[in-house]
């Protein structure tokens, strides 16, 4: 009996090794492109630019690791139209298909102004929709919740903590939704370039356009007239009107045209009536004014601008360049919006130049920021501390919160946290700031740390053992703090912001972010702008 068992084991091993060898040999002859055209092109486009499904380009797959991509091809994605191909394709074919979608598209794909305009859709009947909410709740205390697990948006009543409406979104929304000044409309941007305009009061989509093939984020002007999109691919900025008609393209290139760059971030600077733009590969910061009275732009040296000794361009809807020592990946505005606090990524800058303070009026760097690691300044907050105005930023690399004096630009304190974090939030009416450690691995990602803004000490923690707990947002009045359990079978957890006790829990599918209308449009000091 034992000899028979040994023989069977040897035979199984031999067959297994033969199977692996057969798969390997087969992988060398698999026509991955033909496989893609047969099984994937109908949803993801013949050129992998996306269609009903997302774009499958290396630029679009930066955050999708190969093992996860293989799993998706084999098993599909739950609650979506992505089927699994594990029963139709062999392992060698699945491996070849995964390798194919990570290969650069040659020649490099283009997305022209004509492509943009052809992609636009608009509901002409939207002009007659009622100019008041068609539901019973405070429209200023509405939360827009992005559920990344099944690509939906939930609209949450911030008083009763009940879902008013839920609707599908584009794949992989990124950069946070942006609201018009009255809170009626919200714009969503997806990684593969789609911008969607949604009427929150009537619960209907107004317009949609594809701005590019790989997009970082969108910004909406403080007067609600303009929408700006920041692209990685193609490398450009796009200006749209409020109904997503293309108005202007800005190629992200140096003044002499020799260097191009991906656009890493664009934000609205409301008091300046302008958009401020960070460029990932070029040591410049751009400011594009939407004020018709903007001063002319002089790109060259000027002895006396009144004498016309340099050729000026109109300041309205043109880029004003600020030269930098290093490119900025992300940034934070001080309260006056005169200064940008920005950071480069480690490896692209020396330690002394990692953080920079840039004066937008003087158009130059005025100080370095003493921040190590990988600060996530775009998620910073500002508040008063001992008679001084400070900002606090989480760190993507280290378990620390850096607190910076907004006058002297000096480091006030570093606050230890269980691990690196991505988001930090507070509210003007709360004495506490909440921060996650979601980048810290299994020993830290389940913990939110609560910091007293006067003592600058961690005074409490809340946990979701074994899960990822992240992204806090406060209600309009600051009484409650909402956190996300970042899992497919996740939840939105409502905490009392003073006692830190759980008040309510709503099941949701990986609620990656939640955004309170009032906090966003009022530029509440405790939330990102």
TrEMBL record:
Chain ranges of the Cytochrome c domain: 27-105
Transmembrane spans: none
CDD domains membership: 8prop_heme-binding_NirN
Keyword field contains Zinc: no
Xref: Pfam families: Cytochrom_D1 (PF02239), Cytochrome_CBB3 (PF13442)
InterPro entries, sorted: Cyt_c-like_dom, Cyt_c-like_dom_sf, Cyt_C_IC, Cyt_cd1_C_sf, Haem_d1_sf, Host-pathogen_enzymatic-act
Entry keyword annotation includes DNA-binding: yes
Protein name (database record): Mono/diheme cytochrome c family protein/DNA-binding beta-propeller fold protein YncE
Lineage: Bacteria, Pseudomonadati, Pseudomonadota, Betaproteobacteria, Burkholderiales
Recorded GO MF terms: DNA binding; electron transfer activity; heme binding; iron ion binding
Signal sequence extent: 1-27
Keyword tags: DNA-binding, Electron transport, Heme, Iron, Metal-binding, Signal, Transport
